[in-house]
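Need residues for this backbone.
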């Protein structure tokens, strides 16, 4: 009984030794694992386009100006119809918070208003989505800013804008800057509502440039 037990244990050791031997041979013949690419950085900026002869233009050298605030609720990019990721406020953020931006502030007019920044896989992207809702408008009449209501002409569910006019690619270890342009004059129509002066908002936006640094 003892010899049988000893033989059985030795048999186990023999089989295990053969398995280890062939495993070493197989692993030795394999190539090294493929190195995963490093992410790039995707930065999304906003540029407000204003006609210098239109009613929304105000000289950037004058400190007092028109104010047009909007709420940025979401920002995401799509690799295809189902694969996407959100672009947060900056690369240190772990989620996106709704924020109020001024579409007539100097950074927006200079295309330097950063909407979001995130690490991104080095791939090509075909769509950029962002949710933008008007918050308010103040018209400078020479003495003070006069608040004017803004009415959103879009139906509920249309607040998210889908920009597909330009493909863009994020490259490994580099920054890709995608600039969204919005034409303020084309997006805002002056009107009245129950005798009150209002603006009707229907955003005209597009991807105007893609720069890789």
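Answer:
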């Amino acid at each position: 009984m003892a010899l049988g037990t000893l033989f059985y244990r030795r048999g186990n050791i023999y089989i295990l030794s053969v398995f280890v031997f062939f495993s070493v041979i197989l692993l030795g013949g394999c190539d090294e694992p493929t190195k995963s690419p490093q992410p790039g950085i995707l930065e999304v900026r906003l540029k407000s386009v204003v006609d210098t002869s239109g009613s929304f233009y105000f000289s950037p050298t004058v400190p007092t100006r028109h104010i047009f605030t909007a709420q940025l609720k979401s920002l995401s990019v799509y690799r295809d119809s189902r694969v996407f990721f959100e672009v947060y406020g900056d690369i240190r953020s772990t989620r996106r918070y709704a924020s109020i931006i001024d579409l007539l502030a100097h950074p927006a007019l200079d295309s330097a208003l950063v909407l979001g920044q995130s690490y991104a896989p080095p791939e090509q992207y075909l769509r950029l989505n962002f949710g933008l809702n008007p918050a308010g408008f103040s018209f400078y009449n020479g003495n003070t800013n006069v608040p004017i209501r803004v009415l959103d002409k879009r139906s509920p569910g249309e607040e998210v804008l889908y920009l597909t006019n330009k493909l863009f690619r994020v490259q490994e270890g580099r920054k890709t800057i995608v600039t969204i342009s919005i034409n303020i004059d084309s997006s805002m129509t002056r009107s009245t509502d129950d005798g009150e002066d209002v603006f009707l908002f229907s955003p005209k936006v597009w991807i105007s440039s893609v720069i890789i640094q």
